[in-house]
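Sequence in, structure out. Go.
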Amino acid sequence: MNKQQLLARREYFNMVHHVTIRAIGAFADEELEFRPRPRMRTPRELIFHIYSQEKLLAQAAQQGRFTLEAGNRANPEDEAGATALKALVTVSDMQAYADACHQAADEIFRAMSEEEIARPVESPFGTYPAWAYFNFAYDEHWHHRGQLYTYLRLLGKAPPMLYDYETGEE
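Output:
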């Protein structure tokens, strides 16, 4: 993948992100703690994971290395993740956090040169080109957004249409 292709995919991801922000906004503050079964993540934990992971994967692409320690910071079950998550209490907090992480990842990928996008990035799971870390974040986003949609339905709420890319911005 070259930089032009990556940036085109980022533009699409930006539209997907706007729908996810609206889905987050469908939760009430107290519903962020909804846990459908023991040991399943709450919406708050899922949102934290989705967006922390996106930012951490972008940083790995930028730095040329992804470590388990870095990956664990996106897990609310990990001490580092749990500490960061404590400050995120309301739906508004979660939306702001999601926007900040998404924007940070966007800035990283947009600033990368053609060579940096193609260079190998080492991880405990193998070595992949930096652009693949964008794909990992994108796949992770869709997977966990599906969970958020399921949670909304379990709470009796209709999530936003998956492909309703109207951002409300004019």
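Check: The first strand starts at residue 120 and ends at 123. The domain at 3-154 is CATH 1.20.120.450 (Four Helix Bundle (Hemerythrin (Met), subunit A)).
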